Amino acid sequence: GCDHGYLPVYLVQNGIVESAFACDINEGPLLSAKQTVMHYIGKEDAVRLVLSDGLEKIDYADDVIIAGMGGELIARIVLGCRFLSRDTHFILQPMTKAEILRKELYKNGFYIEKELTARENDRNYVIMSVYYDGESREITDAFAYSGKVTDKEYLSLVCRKLRHTGECCSSSDTAKSEKLCKTAQEIENIITTL
Asked: How many C-beta neighbours within 10 Å does residue 5 have?
């Protein structure tokens, strides 16, 4: 989802990359991205605009940035990558369901190198640096929710959300409630070691 194409334009304009792809499943965002490319760079070939469902029509890229989507959709796009190798670097920023994304990544042979957090307008976001090594792994629920994040404030927020969700479902699903509260406690234990 290239939106207005600001990220690839920024990367090319500042010499971070020589060229980039901007992909979207819809033509509207690609037209907006084209306007951004022409306004800031002045030539279309620096950022190639591709009408594509995820990475479907991309043959190769060194780095893939997928940001601003739900974790489930990001997982589907990453798992559908046709040019996957150990050198392919994914930078992922899920808006929701980061725990599902982490589980899918590890189950399907990916690993998270590191994670950072960012805040904007009282919203917390996680950014993952991810690589593929082909080794399938199971991860704990605590890791699914916390990943490699070391931001205590972010992790505390995750714990509060888990406890709140656990309390809301306590009367209807005791097992789920206990599991969520246990996961929150495990993350709180992680926080004390940071």
From this structure: 25
